[in-house]
TrEMBL record:
<dbReference type="InterPro" id="IPR013655">
    <property type="entry name" value="PAS_fold_3"/>
</dbReference>
<dbReference type="Pfam" id="PF08447">
    <property type="entry name" value="PAS_3"/>
</dbReference>
<protein>
    <submittedName>
        <fullName>PAS/PAC sensor domain-containing protein</fullName>
    </submittedName>
</protein>
<feature type="domain" description="PAS fold-3">
    <location>
        <begin position="39"/>
        <end position="107"/>
    </location>
</feature>
<dbReference type="InterPro" id="IPR000014">
    <property type="entry name" value="PAS"/>
</dbReference>
<dbReference type="InterPro" id="IPR035965">
    <property type="entry name" value="PAS-like_dom_sf"/>
</dbReference>
């Protein structure tokens, strides 16, 4: 169905199917996306009977205003076994629409989609983006894959390097907005995770500054040797200083490997950031899952759902456990890596202190040479600037690392007695 045709087909029903922000609903499908079950809220909002829903493809509630690229991204991730969140516009049987933020998770034999009413500022931005993507699909004849690529390009322009980064941001904002709407206190663990992100971005920036600074001094020992050849016989003091500086600077540069992972392909902070995005998503999804599980359990115990609904409660409980364990494992890995990063920064600082002593010797030798040292002074000035810059950068890295560790500890799950509860991967 084309964009033009879909607009005509549903022009008579532009009303929203109402449901309140405190309502949560879910549906379960098989691996082909055929509806197997759901709760009564799902059935009521969809306006279909259970006889019409069970056995029908889930696209029975798909709204034509949804870009195909979004579903391409969803299925691409789900087929990799990744729980995924997305804003989705659905259509009820009578043609009315309703927006949800859906968390869709692979389970044995199929998928579960848990939905809440979106209310954050991100939602309004997503609506605009969806409308633009839909126009592109219609006007330029984009395939679902091409549309997905365009959507990811838009997200990168907005500062989200991956769809996972965007979905973690969106679900965190939706949970915060939901807490506000329901007059609830914001979840402290999730707030700590959100506060991690700007610190990690600052930490990544400082690491890049560190790499750049060390790249600049690669030529200093060579420059010192050239100057030495003009000032003294071969093997003189300045030549020896330049040789020692080269050896120690090589050792320091090699130590920078402690700030990189994946055989140097990524900085450690970049790796941590991707896991924190995943951790935020899983933690927020766990909160949502806990709520929908309690809703389902209450409905089952009060006989608002059928006898076979017990299985759905068990599925939701298993997913909750999975989310909780996953987010806990992420936090442990982040804490361990940031601890290693702090240790690397301290070790590097000690090495730089040794390197600095050679710089001081160079300045002393320049003083001995007096007026003859004029050609050596630019090199010494460059060394002075480098060491001041490196010392300040390492200080900031250590400070940020400690702050990150504190926030990660605050986000850790706790046992009943309040002690930290670590889920080791």
């Amino acid at each position: 169905m084309s964009f033009q045709n879909s607009a005509t087909a549903f022009s008579s029903s532009r009303e929203e199917a109402p449901f309140s922000i405190d309502e949560l609903f879910f549906s379960r499908t098989d691996e082909r996306g055929v509806i197997a079950a759901g709760n009564e809220v799902f059935r009521r909002i969809s306006e279909y009977s259970w006889q019409e829903l069970v056995g029908a493809p889930h696209k029975i509630i798909r709204h034509p205003d949804m870009p195909k690229g979004v579903f391409y991204i969803l299925w691409e991730r789900l087929k990799k076994g990744l729980a995924t969140g997305a804003y989705v516009k659905n259509r009820a049987k009578d043609g009315r629409y309703y927006w949800v933020y859906a968390v869709i998770s692979p389970i044995e034999g199929g998928y579960v989609s848990v939905r809440m009413k979106p209310s954050s500022k991100v939602f309004s931005q997503a609506q605009v983006a969806y409308a633009e993507a839909l126009k592109l699909e219609a006007n330029e004849g984009l395939t679902p894959e091409e549309s997905a690529a365009k959507i990811r390009e838009v997200l990168r322009d907005l500062g989200f390097p991956t769809y996972a980064a965007f979905s973690s941001f969106a679900i965190a904002q939706e949970m915060t907005a939901r807490d506000t709407a329901l007059a609830r206190v914001e979840d402290g663990r999730l707030r700590s995770m959100k506060e991690l992100l700007p610190r990690l971005h600052d930490l990544e920036s400082e690491q890049q500054n560190l790499f750049t600074a060390f790249a600049k001094i690669r030529g200093i020992p060579s420059n010192m040797r050239i100057v030495a050849s003009r000032l003294e016989p071969a093997g003189g003091p300045i030549s020896a200083i330049s040789q020692n500086y080269r050896l120690m600077s090589d050792e320091v540069t090699n130590h920078l490997g402690g700030f990189r992972v994946e055989n140097g392909a990524r900085s450690m902070t970049e790796s941590v950031l991707s896991r924190v995005h995943h951790g935020i998503f899983m933690m927020a999804a766990a909160r949502l899952q806990r709520e929908v599980k309690m809703v389902a359990l209450e409905a089952f115990l009060t006989a608002k759902e059928g006898d076979n609904f017990k299985y759905e409660v068990e599925v939701l409980t298993t997913l909750l456990d999975t989310y909780s364990i996953d987010s806990g494992a992420v936090l442990v890995s982040v804490f361990n890596d940031v601890t290693a990063l702090t240790r690397s920064a301290k070790d590097l600082r000690q090495l730089v202190t040794g390197l600095d002593s050679i710089r001081v010797l160079c300045r002393v030798e320049a003083g001995r040479l007096g007026a003859n040292s004029v050609s050596l002074m630019p090199v010494i000035d460059q060394l002075d600037k480098f060491h001041i810059e490196i010392d300040a950068t390492l200080e900031r890295i250590m400070h940020l690392s400690e702050r990150v560790k504190t926030l990660v500890e605050a986000a850790m799950p706790r046992t009943a007695n309040g002690s930290l509860h670590y889920h080791h991967s």
